[in-house]
Amino acid sequence: MRPMLHRVFVYGTLLVGEENHHIAAPYIRHIQPERVKGRLYDVGAYPALVIEEEGEVIGEWFTVTKEGLQAMDELEEYEEGSQYNEYERVWVKDIEQPIKGYVYVYPKSKTVMITISLDMATYVYHGGCLKGC
Q: Would you call 76 a catalytic residue per the annotation?
């Protein structure tokens, strides 16, 4: 019996080569670089994607097992149906490719409190600051 697979778009510390990639790595069956609509916000030690019509975010689509999705849910402290989630897991589609899947997004209502939006489409984490700081 084939395991159930899920597509998840990642854009921050889960990216290949970043500090939390090891959490998803054992469960990844395929990786494809692509883009989704939205904007990244700096919320401290990690970025937050807000779905918006303007802008695009470059990241990677992971195809993962059910256990991989569960491991990422745990990292993002996401619990389905909980009102206490910092991030929500929503369905999104790629800008150009016929790919759809989950992504962890920051609710737009929380961005009122954020004053810094990232001017770049990609997020690269290096020792606690954005590349180039």
A: yes
